[in-house]
Design brief:
alpha+beta, Nuclear Transport Factor 2, Chain: A, Glucose Permease (Domain IIA), 3 domains, 6-stranded antiparallel sheet, 9 helices, hydrolase, Cell_wall_metabolism_enzyme, metalloprotease, zinc
Length: about 450
């Protein structure tokens, strides 16, 4: 397509004339034969030749086609290193006037200000002259970012360029996806164009059934129904919470697991349930950091700082500094502050004389005594205290004794579906089963 676009840009009139010339001189020849029969080869054949005459004035049509301006559209995302010139060049536009406008106009300058990752769509003519630029990115008002987006529109008119900014509501869209595990969960979801946020939620949905760090198998299959937020019909990519998993099926080592997100109308709380109504949500989540890499488990290890073999009384999750850390269960903050080698640390008390510890944080976002819900963000991954790299050190204490957090999470009590919600729940399950079947039929296609 790059070579075709380049040729079209250099010779638009020659290309148009050649195509029309071929059409005007073309004679249609049709070869007809009766439907196949036992003696079809003996049936008579007849050749019919007919000249096709163009309707209307051919010269007028040629002139109209030659005058038609090609419009090329390209999409990309802004980068932190972008300038007005580099962005336009990457998108195939050679327009000094447009570049100057992006640098000088106060409204247009917003395109390259702030965070990178703005979704940009550019339209240019065959010579690379910009006709319009549309950028979509999170609402500039922080309170609206979960419900709205900002659209920056730049248009070329007779008097030059104009720019305007609008704040518009995001729209929800239900999508389907499916895939097969070849190497990792995220590789499979990327191949199927499923957002990372949905992959993380899927890992949470089935964390009580499957240990995604140890039990994932090549050839495992999954299908999902999820809701994603869109800006002008385009799925947004700037918000990790922009997608919501509705239902899923995962076949692990030949065994099938199904689950659905259901919110009862009385309490207003939502949870993952199996199709039989059994809750997938346990009192404790398996991971305080969404599907991150375990760098050190609950076992003997060679301590990187003390340079000796010691029992590691927790689990380390490797993740970039700033990655959100969440509470694995409901509780209240017992401690939030600095604690020697742990650096910035948070301790949360839970029911049943249980406590969780989150250490080496770069940021603490809760206070002592604060009530915490399961899954609530409490801080961010860092490398404060005795740490050789960014990670979260996580511990689980039962009656003051350290236990393997993943074993505790899997064995913890499940939360029950309220009796009054069962009829509505079964109706919801029936509706998503059809969608999951359709998603499964798309396996391997990457379609949505």
């Amino acid at each position: 397509m790059t070579h075709v676009e380049a040729f079209a840009a250099r010779h638009p009139r020659a290309l148009t004339g050649a195509v029309v010339g071929l059409l005007s001189c073309f004679a249609v020849t049709a070869f007809g034969i009766a439907p196949l029969a036992p003696d079809a080869s003996d049936l008579p054949q007849r050749t019919v030749t007919e000249m096709v005459q163009p309707e209307g004035n051919l010269d007028a049509q040629l002139a109209e086609l030659a005058a038609h301006e090609l419009v090329l559209r390209r999409s990309d995302a802004t980068r932190s290193s972008d300038t007005a010139d580099s962005l336009l060049k990457r998108m195939g536009a050679l327009d000094s006037a447009a570049s100057q406008f992006l640098r000088s106009d106060a409204t247009a300058r917003r395109l390259l200000q702030g965070r990178a990752g703005k979704m940009v769509e550019l339209a240019a003519d065959a010579s690379g002259t910009v006709q319009s630029i549309v950028a979509r990115y999170p609402a500039e008002n922080a309170e609206q970012q979960s419900t709205h987006f900002t659209r920056l529109s730049i248009e070329r008119g007779a008097g030059g360029f104009t720019a305007k900014v609008e704040t518009l509501p995001l729209q929800a869209m239900v999508r389907l996806g499916s895939g097969t595990i070849r190497s990792s969960l995220f590789a499979a979801t990327d191949e199927s164009n499923i957002p990372d946020a949905i992959a993380s939620q899927m890992a949470d949905m089935f964390s009580g059934d499957i240990d995604f760090h140890k039990e994932l198998r090549k050839g495992d299959r999954f299908s999902v129904v999820y809701e994603t937020m869109t800006a002008d019909g385009e799925p947004i990519s700037w918000d990790a919470s922009a997608g919501h998993l509705i239902a899923g099926e995962f076949v692990n080592d030949g065994k099938s697991y199904q689950s659905i997100w259901f919110r009862d109308g009385v309490s207003g709380k939502g949870n993952f349930y199996g199709f039989d109504g059994q809750s997938k949500r346990h009192a404790f989540l398996a991971n305080p950091v969404e599907f991150s890499r375990i760098t050190s488990g609950f076992a003997m290890r060679f301590h990187p700082i003390l340079q000796s073999w010691r029992q590691h009384q927790g689990v380390d999750f490797g993740a970039p500094t700033g990655t959100a850390v969440r509470s694995v269960g409901d509780g209240s903050v017992d401690f939030a502050g600095w604690q020697n080698g742990y650096g910035n640390v948070i301790k949360i008390k839970h029911s049943g004389d249980r406590e969780t510890v989150y250490a080496h944080l770069s940021r603490i976002e809760v206070k002592k005594g604060q009530k915490i819900d399961q899954g609530q963000k409490i801080g961010a991954v860092g490398m404060t205290g005795w740490a050789t790299g960014p990670h979260l050190h996580f511990e689980f204490h039962v009656r003051g004794v350290q236990q393997d957090p993943r074993t505790i999470a899997k064995a913890s009590e499940a939360l029950a579906l309220p009796t009054y919600a069962r009829a509505k729940f079964q109706q919801t399950v029936a509706s998503v089963k059809t969608q999951l079947s359709l998603a499964e039929s798309m396996a391997g296609s990457g379609a949505e």
